Amino acid sequence: MKHEILYRPVYSLLQIELEAGESISAESGAMVTMTPNIDIQTSAKGGVLSSLKRSILGGESFFQNTFTCRQGKGVISFGPAYMGDVEHIPLTGEWFVQSGSYLCSTPELGIDTKFQGLKGVFSGENLFFLRIYGQGELFISSFGAIHPIDLQQGEEVKVDTGNLVAFQQGISYTVEKVGGIKSTMLSGEGLVLRLRGPGRLYVQTRSPRTFVGWLWPMLPKPQSQ
What we know:
The structure is a single chain. About 15% of the residues lie in helices and about 50% in strands.
């Protein structure tokens, strides 16, 4: 399997070349183009209960599509649902991905949900991460460009709750105020995640929540009767 990420960093398109018998699984609606020698199979990955849990709690689609090259070489492309980048993670072990950032992966990887606990209640984001585990190829997407941060043992970084995309197993985190009460209420930053290494994490350069807040006043409002 070969891949290329085109048009980075904001309107990225993931292009994958499959050999005969190779497969790639993706979120419903992620496929942009594919050659005629690629077959598609739609299923509830991991069974109905697992898919229902992932859909309701993780914010992902209930069904996943698996694309398999029937013969020769096939080419398939995927695009994120929004204006953003795509990142490849050669996965061994576990990664945790924010809702909406999973794009596609090789079929041998498992996908589950991980409850954030009370930390998620106060973070203002989804209460569940997608837990992706095993050994294979994972592709994630971001809103805006994607930026990697490598943390050494005990090293820490604070990330806005709306900008975290994914992090590696081994990284722990807590939710805390950005500063004092005045800064938390008036700075526009609110709550942040303090992440502690070792491991790698990815952040996105734009926050969907902030973008919606900027866009909302410009949208036409319904006229009262």
